[in-house]
Automatic annotation (TrEMBL):
<protein>
    <submittedName>
        <fullName>Uncharacterized protein</fullName>
    </submittedName>
</protein>
């Protein structure tokens, strides 16, 4: 068999043949997550339509803002629930 002369990442070839092996690398919100391929380290994220797209620096920035916003909101909701529980007793 002819040895390939190109220097493509063997993991990339594996991904091309069998598909990427994504795992969640970061949870932004309950709907938006970042994924990284375990083989070739390609990164994806969920966009506002719920589709998977390539994680570009621009989307990383958006996700950081989104994560910050989401965490603040969760914190607010948690505090609200806590107060609510207290008033029930
Ligand atoms: Zn891959």
């Amino acid at each position: 068999m002819n040895k390939s002369t190109n220097n493509r990442n063997p993991f990339k070839i594996y991904c091309d043949l069998f598909g990427h092996n994504y795992e969640v690398s970061k949870k932004i919100t309950s709907h938006v997550k970042e994924y990284t391929c375990k083989c070739c380290k390609k990164e994806l994220t969920t966009n506002s339509n719920g589709n998977l797209i390539e994680l570009t620096p621009k989307y990383k920035e958006i996700n950081n803002l989104l994560e910050d916003f989401y965490n603040r909101r969760m914190m607010y909701l948690k505090n609200k629930t806590f107060v609510h529980q207290l008033t029930n007793y």
